[in-house]
Design a protein that fits this description.
The protein is mainly alpha-helical and 182 residues long. Helix 4 packs across helix 6 and helix 5 runs antiparallel to helix 6. The longest helix has 20 residues. A hairpin with a 3-residue loop joins strand 2 and strand 3.
C-alpha cells in the first residue's frame, strides 16, 4: 500500500478508488491467482491486504505492486510498502486503532476498514484467513480504543481543522461550510 508517510498527496490522489474500482481491483487480483483480497482506501491511504500460500506469496505481492504502478501511472514503487506475516497483522491492527493515521487515534478508520472488509466478503474475495484477521483487528481496535480512552474526544482531520480555526479566529457569529467526506 501507500499512505501519508510514504507518498505525497498528489500521488495518493491517483490511488483513490471508487467502490467499483475496488471491486475491479479485487477481481483482477483474484483472477491473477491471489486467494483472498481486501482493498482499503481512505483519504490518507490505499492498501491491499492479501492472503495466499507461502509458495505463491512473492508472485502475489508483485501482482499488487504492478497494479499500484498502473494505478499511479508510474514505474516507481518507492511510494509503496509491503508487510508480510506478523508485521502485516500488527500493521492492520495499528491502522484499525488509528495509530497509523494523520490524526493519532482518529475514529473513522474502523468504519472504513469494516466497509472494505464487508465489500470484499460480499464479492467473495475473502475466506478463512482474512475473515478472521479483519474481524479480530476491528474487534481488537474497539477494545483498545475503549480501554485506552482514545476515542473520548472525537478525532478526525476535519474535527482538528475546525478546532484550530475556532481557536485562531472568532467564529461565534460566523457561518462556516465544510465540504468533504468523512
Amino acid at each position: 500500500g501507500l499512505n501519508h508517510q510514504t507518498a505525497p498527496a498528489e500521488i495518493r490522489e491517483r490511488a483513490v478508488l471508487t467502490d467499483s474500482n475496488k471491486i475491479e481491483m479485487m477481481t483482477r487480483l483474484l483472477d491473477d491467482g491471489i486467494h483472498e483480497v481486501v482493498v482499503l482506501n481512505t483519504c490518507g491511504r490505499s492498501e491491499c491486504y492479501i492472503a495466499m500460500s507461502k509458495e505463491d506469496l512473492d508472485d502475489g505481492i508483485v501482482g499488487v505492486i504492478n497494479y499500484y504502478k498502473d494505478l499511479l501511472n508510474s514505474s516507481d514503487s518507492n511510494y509503496l510498502y509491503s508487510k508480510i506475516g506478523i508485521d502485516a497483522i500488527e500493521h492492520m491492527v495499528q491502522v484499525a486503532v488509528g495509530l497509523d493515521s494523520i490524526v493519532l487515534g482518529e475514529d473513522q478508520i474502523i468504519g472504513q476498514m469494516k466497509h472494505a472488509y464487508e465489500m470484499a466478503r460480499e464479492h467473495g474475495a475473502t475466506s478463512r484467513v482474512l475473515n478472521v484477521l479483519f474481524r479480530d483487528a476491528i474487534t481488537s481496535a474497539k477494545e483498545i480504543k475503549t480501554k485506552l480512552k482514545i476515542s473520548e474526544i472525537p478525532l478526525s482531520l476535519s474535527y482538528i481543522g475546525v478546532k484550530i480555526l475556532h481557536e485562531r479566529f472568532h467564529l461565534e457569529a460566523k457561518k462556516v461550510l465544510i465540504v468533504g467526506l468523512g
